[in-house]
Amino acid sequence: MNEQDDLAARAKDELSGMAKQGLAHPSTKPVLTGAAIGAVAGALLPVVSLPLGLAVGAGYAFWQRIKR
Questions:
Q1: Backbone dihedral region of 48: left (phi > 0), alpha (psi from -120 to 50 degrees) or beta?
Q2: 14: Cβ–Cβ under 8 A, 6 or more apart, which residues?
Q3: Which residue in 61, 22, 65 sits closest to 38, CA to CA?
Q4: Closest CA to 66 of 25, 5, 7, 20
Q5: Which of 20, 42, 55, 61 is the least buried, fewest Cβ under 10 Å from its Cβ?
Q6: Cα–Cα distance measured from residue 43 to residue 24, given in angstroms and rounded to the nearest whole number
Q7: What is the rounded CA–CA span in Å between residue 7 and residue 25?
């Protein structure tokens, strides 16, 4: 299995675990924190909207969790 397949498998496992376990999953709280930080940044920056900031913040936090 190469690096891309491994990364995709880890992302799938994390997402399904987060969906099944909710806040009990160890990745849920950091991803929600990243989403909140992104939303605040989106509200403060004139070019970035709130939903875009939320999505980027959550995506970045999720990426940090699965790249390990």
A1: beta
A2: 27, 62, 65, 66
A3: 61
A4: 7
A5: 20
A6: 29
A7: 19
In tens digits, the chain (68 residues) has pLDDT values of 576 678 889 999 999 999 999 999 999 999 999 999 999 999 998 888 999 999 999 999 999 999 87
Residues 64 and 60: their CA atoms lie apart, in Å, by 6
List the one residue out of 6, 27, 7, 8 whose CA is nearest residue 17: 27
Structure tokens at 10: 């880890």
% of the chain at pLDDT higher than 90 = 72
- How many whole angstroms separate alpha carbon 39 and alpha carbon 4? 29
